[in-house]
Amino acid sequence: MAGIEAETRPQGHEDAVVFACDMGHLPLAAFAADRIRRVEPARAFDITVCMPDIADLPDWLRDGPTRFCQISTSALPKVETFRSWISAATYFRWVLPGAFEGAYRSLLYLDTDTYQARDGIGALFAGLDRPVPLAAVEDFQYLAPLHGKTVGHLEALRRDLGGPEGQYYNAGVLLIQPGPFAAQDGFSRLLDGVARNAPFDPVYGEQDQGALNLAFAGDLMPLSPRFNWCARPFRNPILTPRYDPVILHFAGRNKPWQLQDDPFVAQFTAEYRDWLARHFPGFQPKPVRGSAAERLAAPKYRIGALNTLRVALYRRRFLKEQQRIWSRDMDEKIRRMDAAMARAVVGRAV
Predict the structure, then answer these.
(1) Angstrom distance (rounded) from CA 105 to CA 110
(2) Could you give phi then psi for residue 162, rounded to 5 degrees?
(3) Are the CB atoms for 134 and 345 separated by under 8 Å?
(4) For 308-328, how does the pLDDT look when each residue is reduced to its tens digit (9 = 90+)?
(5) How far apart are CA 168 and CA 164, in angstroms?
(6) Cα(11)–Cα(27) distance, rounded to whole angstroms?
(7) pLDDT tens digits, residue range 196-219?
(8) Number of domains in the chain
């Protein structure tokens, strides 16, 4: 597989945090990279953003401390996407091991909707004491008891795409060592997973996460959940402080840079908005579907007071539902999360 086609600065360390995106997600990747730089200023790892084309990078990014690399994505198969907010760029992460084989010892891939909450990435790299072809965090939706109309769907998803013992992992944070990954023929296995996932994608829409699990769920290494803390049952004011995660993952539709209603996510909004306004002044937040902002922008009634009341009632219902989700099944969630922490092979001590 082809390596690096162009770069803004040379490699500086043997390990790297790496993002992979197109121009549409560049502002978020740049924010996440800058956040890591601020949280771990004395780091002994590179922060790298990989894109198919870096010719149009703004000068302040080209000359800045983050390393930008142009990578070829020609080895990836052409795939159809089934979720409006997911593009084919979600597969870019899978060319990274081949692009950096022989260069970086370890890669910590992060989605662009991740946020480093505290230091710990350097400690993760420093604590690696064995080869790690691929490590990921168990998907949080299966660490909380399932409820509601989606139970059958989620159980079928895990049965069809998961590992032999029901393992199912989230693809938003991956620890990969390019050498061991290549030694296990990792990219060919991933391509086989993509092919096997094709008939399931119209049903589940899991895209490369489905391929990841079909290809590797039975033998990849569990990464500590502190490195991919996501999903409302756990990403909330009750359990987040209890487990002190390193990486928050704003998976789902409520993103802190958008107009959304989750009060836990909203505590990060000012930091995102201020940074994006300074560095990407054309970046505009959008209302999340069904949010108070969308309801205000598209009033249902001609009388303003009725619309104000409608939104106020919605906000009260939403907050009540959030609090219910946060607190529901608390003892069982703690039991399952403690077990997942104990199962972690990588990053357990961070």
Answers:
(1) 16
(2) -80, 180
(3) no
(4) 999 999 999 999 999 999 999
(5) 10
(6) 22
(7) 999 999 999 999 999 999 999 999
(8) 1
Backbone dihedral angles phi then psi of residue 249, each to the nearest 5 degrees: -120, 115
Give me the sign of the Cα torsion angle 194, 195, 197, 198.
Answer: positive
The three-point CA angle 195-188-226 to 5° equals 90
Is residue 187 within 8 Å of residue 97, measured between CB atoms?
Answer: yes
CA distances from 257 to 83, 164, 166, 236, 312 (A): 20, 38, 34, 17, 22
Q: Position 19: which residue type?
A: F
- With vertex at residue 197, the alpha carbon angle to CA 195 and CA 203, rounded to the nearest 5 degrees, is 140
CATH number where 90 lies: 3.90.550.10
Q: Where would I find the beta strands (DSSP E) of the chain?
A: 4-7, 15-20, 46-51, 67-71, 106-110, 114-116, 135-138, 169-176, 221-222, 247-249
Domain coverage including residue 236: 1-350
For residue 167, what pLDDT is reported?
95
Least confident interval from 145-149, 177-181, 240-244, 288-292: 145-149
Count CA within 13 A, CB hemisphere, residue 170.
27
Q: Do residues 33 and 47 make contact, with C-beta atoms less than 8 angstroms apart?
A: yes
State both tokens at 333: 């969630």
Q: How confident is the model at residue 149 (pLDDT cuts 50, 70, 90)?
A: confident
Comparing CA positions, the residue from 197, 25, 188 lying closest to residue 98 is 188
What are the phi and psi torsion angles at 314 (to 5°)? -60, -45
The structure's pTM equals 0.96
d(CA 103, CA 11) in angstroms, rounded, equals 8
Taking phi over 0 as left and psi of -120 to 50 as alpha, with beta for the rest, 252 belongs to left
